[in-house]
Amino acid sequence: MVENTTPPTIQVSVREMFGIDSDLWVPAFAEKSDLVPSIDSTYQFDPEVTLAILAGFAFNRRTLIQGMHGTGKSSHIEQVAAKLNWPCLRINLDGHLSRMDLIGKDTISIKEGLQVTEFKPGILPSSLQRPIALVFDEYDAGKPDVMFVIQQLLEQNGKYTSLEHNTAITPHPLFRMFATCNTVGLGNISGLYSGTQILNQSQLDRWNIIANLNYLSPNHETKIILAKAPHLDNEHGHLLIEKMVAMATLTRQGFANGDISTLMSPRTVITWVENLTFFKNIDTAFKYSFLNRCEEMEKPILSEYFLRCFDQEIEDIND
Known about the structure:
One of its GO terms (molecular function) is ATP binding. It contains twelve helices and eleven strands.
């Protein structure tokens, strides 16, 4: 059993720490522990989403962040936790995560020369008894049996019932729960998110706060990418990044209009910048970063976008 202890905490001002116009004060830990994420000094916080996450930490509200891929949903939660020195454990609800991974399983060990069977607690009972922020990533991709295990945790002060031990575990006062998803439980309507599930609406109703994290404005996105690529922080670099962001924006508009079936996320643009360092040529780096995973019939459209942004054609587009 995990010892139920509370490390020293302090209260921090949201206005002072995050620059958000709010009188909210949030508990934070006075000292950093091993599970606290590292601070990314270049990270740009979205004020509305940041405030939703902070409310989750301050008032123990179950908080779900929804948005397109590459918008930084999980990293947003982690960076808020990093500023608060709040331990954070991120769990990806992919097809390999089982019910036993969450609740625990019987294990066989040798003690004093005898074979004994012991129950090893899983992720949930271990995390519940600690001051930790548990983040379920890709929440809408979880298998049904896994989702129903999670459901009882969504009760605001609900206890976790362990059928294996016939006990009820009371959550630590500083246990918090967050999740990220792409579809808000609507399934793979757009065709972008294969493997996502249509979620039980009664479970969605149990999330206290649901926030949307959308793509940033071009100016904001340009600043973030320049912060990741300081070697381009010059007049030529600024102009280049602006064109790359404009290209990404066109793919998002084209996707919204049904002209193309995939789009460039901010993560894709950052990859494009990184690959440009290796390949030196803007269109070669673009092909390796994005174009080569697009449908052949859509490449002429993307070539047109590229021409509009860079005033040049992509060489050997089908190579």
